[in-house]
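quick q for whoever's on today - can somebody do inverse folding on this one?? i tried earlier but teh output was garbage lol. tokens:
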């Protein structure tokens, strides 16, 4: 049963591109903007009848828990409810639990019984005499008896697997919900790309599992659906199609088109640091399918056969792909051409007006930041300027000093590869960074060729003097000319 909605997502204004990347230097509020956009992909729901309770289980976010955590939560529930002393058989107990069923659906596993059996075996306590496999992995929390029943060691669970208790408590709270309960459903997933992220995690791949029927530790393999595939299926469910994505792709084209219109609820995948991943490697052949004109339900829709499962696959028209990109990590000019063609890029630069009211002991923080960034642009480029978000929570000289000492200065060191002369130019004076001459006795002889070497040191006390910050933006024009000259050299 579908719960009644108070504030349906389709009534909210979502008037931006299906594929969008927010890009800019660090600290310009990209991730903050992402969190605001998430509000457009939520539904406020009411439980009007007991039949609506099933929808509440979406609140568990079961996909964020591992199979071992789910198994432990199920057995912990049995222990807390004193069902058979906390002992459950696999086929007549564990697999009948709602948490197992939810995890099976969300994981996309074709052999969930075998998967959870493997998990139980591999996380059994080391001294369990009824499980004899070659390899076990921590946490060692499960026990098996002579009746082939399973339990979890509740005494060590809080230390070894606290996520299981967290899941159990959420489950128990939902199980006790009454008619009239309100809650918010999130129609999105959030991930962060990294250099080793690949197609297997994003779309689908093959992962090894132990054969649950063979306790000798034999390995079999199963196809695992990635987070993008899961998002596509979740988006399709919002269109009121209740089957699998692979089955939807087998429908006639005119039938598929009936499920998508302007009132179809929207789903989103938010990708932080999208430029840190290898886009060609992650998306593979699917990069073409994300184009609006190639989505399922569009006139020019395209479907492909996935390499591992051999299933038909397409991207639903109601799935938004929204990412962030830090230009200090990689210039937009260096981005994969295929990605640049298929995304709308929204620039986010420092907003000095946001800091207009941030005056710390006569220090105009907005004006100071603007001056710093103008110098960075002369000496480097605008992609490496500094965002206003670093100073949003600055309220006094002490917090300003901490921001400069622990965030701004290390960032400048990274930008200019410890070229202290340029860093001093950016800061407009030598107040924070002092020249340091080596001791005469440091080298005994043969030092003629290093006599001109200049060393620098950071004056930590200088960060607590307001005059040093005023000097940053009250510099003379000659200092700006000096910065230009340094850049030319």
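ok took a stab at it. sequence:
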């Amino acid at each position: 049963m579908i719960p009644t909605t108070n504030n349906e997502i389709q009534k909210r204004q979502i008037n931006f591109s299906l594929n969008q990347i927010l890009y800019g230097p660090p600290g310009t509020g990209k991730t903050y903007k992402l969190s605001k956009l998430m509000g457009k992909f939520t539904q406020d729901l009411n439980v009007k009848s007991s039949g609506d309770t099933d929808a509440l289980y979406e609140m568990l976010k079961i996909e964020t828990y591992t199979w071992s955590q789910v198994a432990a939560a199920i057995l912990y529930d049995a222990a807390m409810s004193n069902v058979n002393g906390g002992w459950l058989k696999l086929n007549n107990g564990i697999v009948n639990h709602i948490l197992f069923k939810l995890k099976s659906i969300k994981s996309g596993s074709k052999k969930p019984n075998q998967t959870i059996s493997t998990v139980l075996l591999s996380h059994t306590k080391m001294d369990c005499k009824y499980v004899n496999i070659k390899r076990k992995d921590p946490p060692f929390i499960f026990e098996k008896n002579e009746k082939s029943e399973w339990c979890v060691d509740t005494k060590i669970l809080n230390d070894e697997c606290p996520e299981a208790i967290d899941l159990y408590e959420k489950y128990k709270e939902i199980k006790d919900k009454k008619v009239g309960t309100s809650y918010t459903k999130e129609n999105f997933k959030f991930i962060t790309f990294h250099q080793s992220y690949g197609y297997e995690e994003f779309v689908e791949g093959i992962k090894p599992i132990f054969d649950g029927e063979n306790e000798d530790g034999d390995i079999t393999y199963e196809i695992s659906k990635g987070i993008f595939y899961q998002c596509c299926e979740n988006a399709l469910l919002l269109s009121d199609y209740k089957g699998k994505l692979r089955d939807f792709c087998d429908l006639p084209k005119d039938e598929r088109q009936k499920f998508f219109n302007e009132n179809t609820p929207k789903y989103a995948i938010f990708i932080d640091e999208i430029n840190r991943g290898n886009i060609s490697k992650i998306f593979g052949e699917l990069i073409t399918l994300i184009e609006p004109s190639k989505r399922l339900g569009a006139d020019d829709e395209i479907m492909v056969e996935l390499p591992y499962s051999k299933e038909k696959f397409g991207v639903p028209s109601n799935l938004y792909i929204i990412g962030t990109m830090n230009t200090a990590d990689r210039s937009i000019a260096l981005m994969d051409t295929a990605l640049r063609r298929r995304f709308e890029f929204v620039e986010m630069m420092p907003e000095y007006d946001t800091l207009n009211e941030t005056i710390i002991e006569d220090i105009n923080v907005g004006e100071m930041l603007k001056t710093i960034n103008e110098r960075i642009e002369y000496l480097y480029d605008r992609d490496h300027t500094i965002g206003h978000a670093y100073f949003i929570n600055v309220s006094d000289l002490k917090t300003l000093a901490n921001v400069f000492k622990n965030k701004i200065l290390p960032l400048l060191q990274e930008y200019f590869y410890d070229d202290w002369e340029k860093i001093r130019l950016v800061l407009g004076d030598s107040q924070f960074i002092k020249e340091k001459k080596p001791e005469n006795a440091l080298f005994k002889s043969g030092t003629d060729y290093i006599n001109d070497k200049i060393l620098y040191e950071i004056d930590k006390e200088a960060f607590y003097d307001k005059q040093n910050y005023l000097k940053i933006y009250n510099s003379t024009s000659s200092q700006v000319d000096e910065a230009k000259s340094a850049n030319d050299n």
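fwiw The longest helix spans residues 397-415. also Confidence is low (pLDDT under 50) at residues 1-12, 211-216. so keep that in mind when u check it
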